[in-house]
Write a structure and sequence with these properties.
Elements: H1 2-13, H2 15-34, H3 58-65, H4 69-72, H5 81-96, H6 98-105, H7 108-140, H8 150-178, H9 183-194, H10 196-206, H11 209-231, E1 233-240, E2 243-245, E3 252-254, E4 258-264, H12 271-293, H13 301-306, H14 312-333, H15 336-345, E5 348-349, H16 357-390, H17 395-398, H18 403-426
Antiparallel strand pairs: 1-4, 1-5, 2-3
Helix pairs in contact: 2-8, 2-9, 5-6, 5-7, 6-7, 7-8, 8-9, 9-18, 11-18, 12-14, 14-16, 15-16
Amino acid sequence: MKKFITTLKNIWKIKELRDRILFTLGMLMVYRFGSYVVLPGVDPSKLTTGGAEGATDLFGLINTFTGGAFNNAAIFALGIMPYITASIIIQLMGFAVPYFQRLQQREGESGRKKLNQITRLLTLAITLVQGGGYLAYIQQQGAISESISVGLFWICNVIVLSAGTIFAMWLGERITDKGIGNGVSLLIMIGIIATLPGALAYEFSNQFGLTFVIEMAALFFVVMATVMIVQAVRRIPIQFAKRMVGRGASAMPVSGNRDYIPIKVNASGVMPIIFAQALMFIPATVLQLLGNSGSSLADSDFLVKLNDFTSGPYNIIYFVLVVVFTYIYTALLVNPQQYAEYLKRQNAFIPGIKPGKKTADFIDSVTTRITLPGSIFLGIIAILPAFAAMFGVNIGFAMFFGGTSLLILVAVVLDTLQQVESYLLMRKYDGLVKSGRLRGRSGVQGIGAPM
């Protein structure tokens, strides 16, 4: 405890770090305040009885990521999610469309600026579409005030929702530039954390003392295992070629430096779970459409089970999808051919492996082997909330036992701690951990930076 207090004092002594932390906290407070500013002409109390309250459907997932703003019908009801969607689309297009690939890899800073502009415009377009869908949901729930014109309600609130998302995006960029970094990720994390105290208090009041202690111990071990898998890397050693030092007869060969290529066990991050979860919402949508049309297929036992996240068929399919998407997304992110070309340009090689195609094949085989345990662990993390709910944990608290919520929390916290760690070490203070080698997602890139 004494070392922890000393570390906090050291953090406060560094003026730049102190200013950045205070600025970040101020921006996060503004974002949370916007989550309670209700859209004009909306009665949010009528929304809590709708489907958005459940954490097992799409509305519940959005409400979790927005920190309750979705259920509150707030100006930040869509949160930063349209920007995340636009970023994912642009990233995927960078793998398939040569123009975007050129902007990502070859045009440097100017290319990144163009991609940012395209992402912002796409964010606005997605917000307009999603904002219209959200307002239609509000109208379906009967939450529109009778004293306001429907046409005026739609026009005003589409503008307000779009402005809210753009402002949230601006807050994230300001946190990245003037705060402690990872602005967009911090906005998502603060939204997720906002639902934790209520879920924790509800669980504490509805469980016996020993049961609650067991649940907290299980959550602790799950978090520690997630931290291990997020930080785990497979180091491929590399050797730089020898160089001559001196001139003429006095020149002597000096062996090159040794380094390594860090290949992450979970290179795909949380994306496989997001893609798999999006596909698992399709059966629920189909079931709802069939029920509205009066089709007998709506009574299908299999479809009903696919709409229940605690059922066996749902979890089996969900697990397989996560494993498959992990391999697909890792193949898109990790390009062995680029690694081989980069090593060749740097006059480096993997000991015992010939440069060129042999190097690319070796890196590909290593990536494939380490992706298997990473994908299986990710699949287990994805279905853990279902097992927690089956053992009696309430749904709101069970969501923190795995899935996107846990992975985002762990990854963002590690990144933030790494930023603070770097400031402490630069000022010759002790780091947050004894070894001084805290790693987040951005801390294990090493020689893989060009990727």
